[in-house]
Amino acid sequence: MRPKETEWYIGIELGNKWTMVSSYTVGMKEPETKGLVAGSQSYRIPTALCKKRGISQWYLSEQTEGIYIEHLLEKVVKGEIVEAEESYEAKELFLVFLRKVIRMALPGKGIVAVTRCVFSVEQLTTELAELLLGCARELGWKPEQILIQDNKESFYAYAVSQKQELWMYDVALFSSEDGAVTYWNMSHDKKTIPQICKVTEQYLGELPKDSDERDLEFAKMLEKTLNGRIVSAVYLIGEGFEGGWMRTSLQVVCRGHRAFQGKNLYTKGACYAGVLDAHAEKRETIYFCEYKTEKNVFLKASYQEREYMYPLVEAGRNRHQIQKKCSVLLEGEPSLDVWVQSPGKKEAVIESMELQGLNSVEGRRCRLELQIEGKLENGLQLKVRDIGLGELLPGSNQEWEYEIG
């Protein structure tokens, strides 16, 4: 799946130490990662701001001359006050940082022309999701333009956006930073439509500092994790794999697999995730993890004497970003039936919500406002309010709440 005409996507890998940003639009074979120096292959931007003493202008830089404020993400999550000739709230500097990073990848028409801006973080928490959503609003983004996900989902989006032969079976990713090696495996269920994809994580341990020993130890890790399994592609990312020390281990990697090495997979994957989200109706796969909805939620409704299923929530959505509001005209008994269905299944579970105390009018007809919200750690919450049929028949404003698992 590729961008359509006029579509523009931005992918930001946001870390406490480093940040990377890419853009993706029609005519590009793949997302383009931006660097501080044009034409440079150094894509890592310190999550930091720098300024000269006596001057209030902040800028992005890899240099630490003057006043250098690093680890901005950690500082803003903690709500710190930063001293830099004067006092700043960490969020104030973080917004300056984000604005400068985003500007590197914006189209000529600015924010309004961006289809999706996707943030990819190492670990997604409720606190971080709310922080980034709030920052996005302050920077002028609309809610529907923003996605927030973790690096595992960016890996998934990158993998399934390649040629199908590269993800026909499982896909493996090995990441190495500061000598530690982590292994991710993406699998997908071919029996479901769309195919359900998941990523599992395993910590493999530390590598020796000596290059020869490191090579042999990593080869053993590869043998242990890959042998006996069908893997279509292997990705190696992180500074730990640099330096040309892989000889024996590289032979193991390439044995029956397509292998790729690089640093900017997550930022590109974030761009691909934006495309998948914007064209969700055409997707072949769906990604499940702890912050995703794993069920489709519908209301059975009728319009002009025809019955249909009205979607409240689609499977695969980020729970922390679900906020939907609609109104319905209720006839008959004072209850709502919510249909909950797994992807690829014909059967649905019907969950009935009793609206106790609802006063019906005009032949048991009421107008209700429905609002559905999600949270990162748990399920969905459906709120119902009696809003009535206008000034002549006002509603009671009575409210009901219902949890959808």
Number of domains: 3
Mean pLDDT, all residues:
91
Q: Note the main sheet.
A: 6 strands, mixed
Shape: globular
Radius of gyration: 25 Å
Helix content: 10-25%
CATH architecture title of the largest domain: 2-Layer Sandwich
Low-confidence stretches: none
- Proportion of beta-strand residues: 35-45%
Distance between the amino and carboxyl termini: 31 Å
Q: Report the total helices.
A: 7
**CATH C-level label of the largest domain:** Alpha Beta
CATH topology of the largest domain: Nucleotidyltransferase, domain 5
Overall description:
With 405 residues, the protein is α+β, with helices and mostly antiparallel strands. The chain folds into three domains: 8-151, Nucleotidyltransferase, domain 5 (2-Layer Sandwich); 154-266, Nucleotidyltransferase, domain 5 (2-Layer Sandwich), CATH 3.30.420; 296-404, no CATH class. Helices cover 20% and strands 37% of the residues. The strands form six sheets. Strands 1, 2, 3, 4, 9 and 10 form a six-stranded mixed β-sheet that branches. Helix 4 (151-160) crosses helix 7. The longest helix has 16 residues, at 211-226. It is globular.
Write the layout of secondary structure elements.
Blueprint (H helix, E strand, L loop, with lengths): L7 E7 L3 E8 L6 E3 L10 E2 L2 E3 L15 E3 L2 H7 L2 E3 L3 E3 H14 L12 E6 L4 H13 L7 E5 H10 L9 E8 L2 E10 L5 E12 L4 H16 L4 E7 L10 H6 L4 E5 L2 H14 L6 E3 L8 E8 L2 E8 L9 E9 L3 E7 L7 E6 L10 E10 L5 E7 L12 E6 L1
Parallel strand pairs: 1-9, 9-10, 11-14, 13-16, 14-15
Antiparallel strand pairs: 1-2, 2-3, 2-4, 5-6, 7-8, 11-12, 12-13, 17-18, 17-20, 19-22, 20-21, 22-23, 23-24
Helix pairs in contact: 1-2, 4-7
